[in-house]
Specification:
Chain lengths: ~280, ~300
């Protein structure tokens, strides 16, 4: 190859940024499956992950949704059902943020992502595994809340609504996975968990995930309109018959827009890493 | 198989590699030898396509290192701060094997890396040496033709180091090409067909381990003498002189001529001791010498 051709080839490769892997479709599917399976197992065995991500929403639900307020109702919906929607949102948000951001920041900062990038792994498989794992954990949390609600809180609802609520919350993990990817690119391995908590906890409170929305101060209620968890919780509350205001289309649009913004930020981080060739 | 041509790589103001020309031919084991911060890891990362050079050309299998077809034929063992600890050894290998078209069977990888009895252990429960062996297993599981090993034995005890050496030799017997970095001359000597010594981003010597040793090895002469250090430096064959408490330590390629000269110059000379300079020490002398010449040439440039 002449030098000129080599140079051209080099520029070409450079501009492609994400090289195409020539795996067969079946092989590619296997890689994606294994990547997701091991990402799931990795987090499942990580006590720091399961303890904070699974146990908090479940504990809060048992305490506030079943033990303390179970005979009360909010807007005609029993507290036990209402709180499946709100603590479900809370759980989905935590599972997705911690599932993507903490792992990504650590893999980037401590060299593991470099080992993977030096291998022929399709780069997208790595991100897909994190997103899929977050969705699975989201589903687990919602199912546990449901089981508890049905068994101890007298929650009853048509199977269709039940499926709709789970579907909404699992799809609703996507904006938070996207947010997690963005955070993972702009935090370090040690600062990531603290940063996540700093965003996750105040956002949950302001969105009415802990204290029902109508009991929040007026100022906070106004802030909530700009927060993605508020919109996901409203979509979920709509299904259990306690939706407040705004059409579903508006809520979904806000979540979609938020997802795109976060993916854009994550992409900037990804490209910065490629150029720095660091992560 | 792999080459760097006139490669320069900077990190901001730090010049990690300066005009490095270097190649690895099929079937050989090449050691990139140098102290910490010499640019060894940078060279490996360039060859793996994890970074781009500022100027110069990096080639693997005659093509771009980021080309996935080339990555299929490459295995890498890098220095990693944290590997996911909750996955088992065989799970890590299973995942990495899935990336490759024709991976080695799991049992073979486990055997090659000496991990048969540890395959069910979680990564976080392994000792330092065992962890290094898992990283080695991940590098070889795709049955690559070209293997990059960045400081494969750093932090290992003597026994674990020898075990890994044996494993690397077995890969070579199977016709693999290996580029490894190390800061132990002994390791380069034990494994490599060819050694490139790198210091402050420049390759300062290349050759077979014997040639490198010949360049660096020599004798250390210790004695009590009234001769000044400046005088001692004048003696032909002397490469270095250091005052060591009341004695002096003279480094020379050949001891005999220097000792004859010494005894002729100072009849009162006493406490004469001649020892072979250790390999590590000799290597240190080589890199220190290059550092000194690099610095002095830089000073000359600065004063001009």
């Amino acid at each position: 190859m002449s030098t000129a051709a080599a140079l051209q080839n080099n520029t070409l490769n450079h501009s492609l940024n994400t090289p195409q892997i020539r795996h067969s479709p079946a092989h590619t599917a296997t890689i994606y499956l294994k990547e997701a399976k091991y990402e799931f197992l990795k987090n499942l065995r990580l006590r720091m992950y399961t303890a904070s991500v699974l146990s908090f929403p479940i504990m809060f639900y048992v305490l506030f949704g079943l033990v303390l307020n179970s005979h009360q109702a909010i807007n005609g919906t029993s507290v036990s059902a209402y709180m499946i929607a709100t603590y479900g949102t809370f759980g989905v948000m935590g599972a997705s943020l911690f599932g993507t951001a903490a792992g990504l920041a650590s893999d980037r900062g401590l060299g593991w992502l470099q080992v993977k990038r030096a291998s022929p792994m399709p780069p997208f498989a790595y991100f897909a595994a994190k997103v899929i794992t977050s969705m699975i954990f989201s589903a687990i949390i919602v199912l546990v809340l449901f089981t508890l609600g049905i068994a101890f809180g007298g929650v009853r609802m048509p199977v269709g609504d039940f499926a709709k609520l789970i579907g909404t919350l699992v799809v609703g993990s996507l904006p938070f996975s996207a947010m997690g990817l963005a955070l993972g690119y702009f935090t370090g391995p040690n600062s990531a968990p603290a940063t996540i908590n700093l965003i996750y906890l105040p956002m949950s409170f302001c969105s009415g995930l802990w204290v029902p929305f109508m009991f929040l101060p007026k100022v906070v209620q106004k802030i909530a309109l700009a927060l993605p968890p508020y919109h996901l919780s409203q979509l979920s509350l709509g299904i259990v018959g306690a939706g407040r205001s705004g059409s579903n289309a508006t809520h979904w649009s806000v979540l979609a827009a938020f997802t795109m913004i976060c993916l854009g930020v994550a992409r900037i981080g990804f490209q910065r890493d490629q150029e720095k060739m660091y992560g | 198989m792999a080459s760097l041509d006139a490669v320069n790589k900077n990190y901001g103001d730090i010049r990690a590699l300066r005009g490095v020309d270097f190649r690895v031919r099929a079937g050989e084991v090449v050691a990139l030898l140098g102290p910490n911060g010499a640019g060894k890891t940078t060279a490996i990362k360039l060859l793996l396509g994890l970074m781009q050079p500022n100027t110069g050309r990096v080639r693997v299998f005659g093509g771009d290192p980021t080309d996935p077809a080339n990555r299929m034929r490459t295995g890498a063992m890098l220095q990693v701060g944290r590997v996911p600890e909750t996955l088992r050894v065989r799970e890590h290998i299973d995942l990495f094997s899935s990336y490759y078209e024709k991976p080695l069977p799991l049992a073979e990888v486990l055997a090659a890396a000496g991990l048969e009895k540890l395959s069910h252990r979680k990564f976080g429960d392994l000792s330092g040496g065992q962890k290094q062996r898992v990283l080695f297993a991940l590098a070889i599981c795709g049955n690559p033709d070209l293997l990059f090993l960045d400081e494969p034995t750093v932090g290992l005890d003597v026994e674990a180091r020898r075990m890994l050496w044996d494993e690397i030799r077995r890969m070579v017997d199977r016709g693999k090409t290996v580029l490894l970095t190390t800061h132990y001359l002994q390791e380069a000597d034990a494994l490599a067909d060819r050694v490139a010594v790198i210091n402050q981003g420049e390759i300062i010597a290349q050759g077979t381990p014997n040639e490198i040793k010949a360049k660096t090895s020599g004798k250390r002469i210790r004695c009590l003498t009234t001769l000044s250090i400046a005088t001692l430096r004048q003696i032909p064959g002397v490469t270095d002189v250091k005052a060591d408490r009341e004695a002096v330590e003279i480094h020379a390629a050949e001891a005999e001529a220097v000792v004859r000269e010494l005894l002729g110059l100072d009849a009162q000379l006493s406490g004469l001791e001649i020892t072979s300079a250790g390999l590590e020490e000799a290597f240190l002398a080589l890199t220190q010498e290059s550092t000194r010449t690099q610095e002095s040439s830089r000073n000359e440039i600065a004063s001009n």
